[in-house]
Amino acid sequence: MDMSIDHPGPAHPSHTYSEPPPPPPPPMISSEGVVATDITQKFLSAAATLDPGQLVKDGFFTLFEAVGALEIMDSKMDSGCLAPGESLDDEYDFTRQLLPSEVIGIIDQLLCLEMAWHLGYPLSQTLLTSVYIEAMLMPSPNNIQEAHFIRDPNSKAAKDPMTTVLRAYCLGLLKACYYVNEHIKNEHYYEEEDFVTNTYHRSLLDNMDREEIREEIMSARRLVHSLRPDLAAGVADALCFRLELRTAFLRAIELSELRSNPESLSLPWVQMQAVWEPINKSRHLSTPVPEAFSTKIQRRLASTVPPRPIVQPSFEETYEHFKRLFRDGIDVLEVLNYADSQSLLQNFVLTFQARKPQPLVYIRTMLQSFLFKDMVILGHLSIRHVMDDDLSMVVLPGSQLLDPANDAVEAPHDGRFAVAHQMETFRQRAAQSYLDIFRALCQNRCRVRRTLCHSIQDWEAVQMEAEDIDQLLQIQLDEQPLAYPADAPPGSPPAYSLPLSSWAYLYKLRLMEWIVQLGFELQIYQADELAGMYWYLSHLAKTRARHVERIQAFTVKRNADLRGARSPRYTVAMEAEYARSMRYLRATLLDAVITWELAEALSCLYTALLRLGLVAPPPRPYSADELRYDIRMKPFAAVRLPDLPTFDEFTRQSEQTGVSTARLLEYAHAVSRSAQKGHVVVGQMSEQEAFSVGAHDRWAARAKQRMQSVIAVNVALSTMQSGLGKAGLGGSGADADGAGERARRVLKAEVPKPEACYHDWWIVPKISLLL
């Protein structure tokens, strides 16, 4: 019987293969309205005419489809693209027994990833790259027992001591991240600029009770203590410190919701600060477990972005960031010790947010929460209380306009009824603008400036409306005018105090100064623009100083009138209010004068450098001076008062065309020396005199930095005058033909970056002698 089987392969090695059979014809599709056409040959012929890599865009092929087609099988864009031999998911064995050193290594890497998340990177590139975190969150656990890497609680691996310790740490970590994420979302922040709150459909244990998680951590600590005899030296303490960090973090978040008693609220932050040093010193006990982290998890996340690498700062960087986080967490609680409105705004919030590096977004949103949550300032103050405190300090000390008894008057014919109505109208109009200053200062530095540019337009409107209310109030109070200024020519119209519009105008001027000063800090202005912008800053500061002098004159007059009339209204409390107001006006006047003089000195110095070519403008083939001026002054274009200088006036004032270079340097020296004398007075101020209660150390540090800038200006001016003398350019010689070339042989000028200066707002050039 023939059992042979026909085989399609070659019968003999020498047999050659025949051509493969042609492909079967396409199926005949029979359907009404559908005509099938074979375009294979046409497509191949057309494709043969294209160069390798050449793309053809069809008009009916949308951009979305085109980008989608480009992403397919691109490892950088297509999360499903696998390399040869690569598996779709990680094959990590969660049942393996972890060594204590490996648990420390995983925890330390989680600390680095946690800080990367606080710095603004998404969870998909940080914590959600951990296979342990993913195993705990997916599928989403319904209770604390299900929140485990191994869902079978009876398995031997689930009861492994080191797995239990790691699980407890991850529970505390995820719960803390949930609270931080929710806290930030409830405040004002900028997505992708400051922080990414996207959780990619992961729960972060939002349905778990905080006390249950805290108990799991405490149970894990007890377990570690019981294993201490079996562990290597220092390992048990290293694990306990890391678990204690998680407990303290949860406690700090819990207490921050109270907004009272900052001494008690600071205890967990102090605890974290205390355990952080031992954690850093014990990191040598860790063993890295790189396979416990993978970017493949991003394939399972609800994300529209392509796969991205893991972002992990070094432990040294993480150490510094956490150290600063804990310090800022302690310091921000001091805001709850309210002293007065100016200490809160001008010094605490302003100096706290000006720290370098700036506090992390979580700390900044904590500050926002303390200030604004439920529209109750610092947990116990109404907006009216803070505004009236500010008005009393700045323009209305001891004034009946702020008397709470006015609100109880119900008779419409009583003047106090009209006063109460007009004041409440003003408060309602100005309250949001006032609070927006605090909110703006809580943002990142770039956003602070952008927000303030919008705020000054709002304050312009507040000032205009306040002028109308002032006129109504002066009729109700029968206010007597004052001849101001004292040297006004005969026949000049008398002046009224206009307290509400004066208050709004003072804030508007301060915001305008901050906008210009932040421009220096953020390097918005080029080196050849510094002369003009410092002149404009001096112009604004001079205007503020004169305005404060006006407010001061009316305050002194009211105080003298009450004293002279021996009015029964002039109580000890009212006298204290006037004394406080005079202290504030003196402090803010001194600040305005120092700013004016220092800015004037720098403007003159940069003008001299430009004249001699020691600072040269960069090539600008598509720019013009007037267009650049329009851009720089755009934030102030809508402001009616103070008047915006025209381009010609701005150029004339900044270039000082009619003043010799030698005279310019002498004048700069004179005003900088005057600023230095003013700083001597500033340095002797107490926290009450400087209105820096709760922030005096930071205020004093910034005052010292400005003082160092003044000294640096004096040194630069002396060096420049000495160099010009050596080059034979003294007197009018600095303005002669060829003076610039001779000066450049002797002098060298360098404009430093803001971070290299003593103060971010005062860019003092470094001038050196070449001979």
UniProtKB/TrEMBL annotation:
Residues 333-723 form the NAA35-like TPR repeats domain. It is found in: Cytoplasm. Residues 52-214 form the NAA35-like N-terminal domain. InterPro entries: NAA35-like_N, Naa35_N, TPR_NAA35. Residues 1-30 are annotated as: Disordered. Keywords: Cytoplasm. Residues 19-28 have a biased composition (Pro residues). Its main location: cytoplasm. Belongs to the MAK10 family. This is Mak10 subunit, NatC N-terminal acetyltransferase-domain-containing protein. It comes from Schizothecium vesticola.
